[in-house]
Amino acid sequence: MKKTNIFFGLLIALLFSMCTSPKQQGEGLPVLNVADALDAALPDTFTWNSIAKNVRMIPLKTEGLIGRGPNVKYFSDDLIIVTEYHSGVFVFDGEGQEIVSFDHRGMGPKEYLYTTRVNYNKKDSLILLYDGGLKKLFRFDLEGKFVDVKSMDVGGTVLNIAPDGTMITTNGEGNSLVKVWDSNLQLLGEYLPFDTLYTDKQKRFYQLMSGKDIRGEAFRVLPVCGDTVYTITKEGVSPLCVVNRGSYKWSSEELNDLTYIPGNSERLNTESMYSFSSYFYYEGMTSEPIAQLWDMRTGELVAWNKGEPAENPFTWIHGFRYVFPSGNEFRKSDFDYLNQNCGVFIRQADECVDDVPGLTADDNPVLIVLEF
Predict the structure, then answer these.
(1) Is 229 helix (H, G, I), strand (E, B) or coil?
(2) Which pTM value belongs to this model?
């Protein structure tokens, strides 16, 4: 009788675990009710300054000219890497003084075409530059000298390159959303498997529509038909939070017909998100872009903004305000570089002249560093 009772007890426990709902499986994770807050209409009083413990402004000092469209690829207290759009690389110390700059574009064996992904290996003092067109990973030292190059063609799009050369890619042809590779192109893992019944077209649609965070140090993804945001590293996958999109979330059935496009107000499209400190930023598009900032400690909505049409067609003014000490301001939906402790905006000098002594409108850009 005792053995029988143990057997039935185990059976009941097994059946209960099989019937566990997604909500129970996500128990303990912050739950952010994005759908309920789409029309929150909070007053537009939030500023990025309000959650920063400290703000620094760092003018970038170089004899070269950093053109429009610069990108912050790496930031620390002692090293800053900025690239121009598809071209030059500028390396600065923590005060913004140039260490070296180089532009090795070309078709030679030591030359690249695009600065698709850039990172810095502090241990070896090497700059990693991935060219998404050539599908090659170049390494340069801090004098801008070529070290080596390696083919990194793994069949998918490179989403993130870690300082040690670990790559996170889309799964070009496979059964999962992402793959992780080491610097020798050894596959470390495949994560977030597709439904086994999905066709190749459905998989590609799933890849395209899933929200991805490729800013800064971490890679995170929100599967288009899922509820959980995951952080992915070479160690594996870990859940970050639950995003409840309710009826605005795409269903797996809708992936069966790629010609089906929901009405503007029926589904959340072109989703993006990122996380820093204890905050989570979410943005999705219904009939207009909606920006939300959440406090993951409390699950409360901190800020909300609905985009407004810009002068240029098909573009929107959205995101939250940053206010300079002078009172001047700009609106930005995301940071140009981000890690858990700080976010960085890069702005043209003409926007900052009233707040940086000695700066002129023709100078190179300025970094605005918000420490959290």
Answers:
(1) strand
(2) 0.87
